[in-house]
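Practice problem: predict the structure.
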Amino acid sequence: MDTVITPCGCPATLHLPLPPGTHAAPHARRSVTRMLALQPDVCPRAVAEDLVLIVSELVTNAVLHAQGPYALTVSLQPGRAGIAVGDGSPDLSGRRPDDPARRIGPGGRGLKIVRALGADLFVSRSGSGKQVVAVLTWQTG
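Answer:
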């Protein structure tokens, strides 16, 4: 179950364990959309759409290229959102240990899309896995 915490004066935060496989990205998109609906004054609509797309791309990348468990954390405040997608793979190469072959066919645009939407990207090891973090900023007021 997802949890949205909205303490007074602090960022709204969503922490969500994600199911493995094809259900992860839609679940993440629905949860972030609900979070944004609860904070309509914090994030303009166009930015909210970009934010949901960034979440979708990062979660999809994690499921395609890393082992679980997967988790999503989104922190939202006026002018800034942080999106962290954690997985169970400490490997930073982007290849699943159980499938060392590279994907054949279309793909490979997820992080380019995230960057094109204006997000800064970071990757760090975390516990027994890693986190891919995107930070998106926008003008307020």
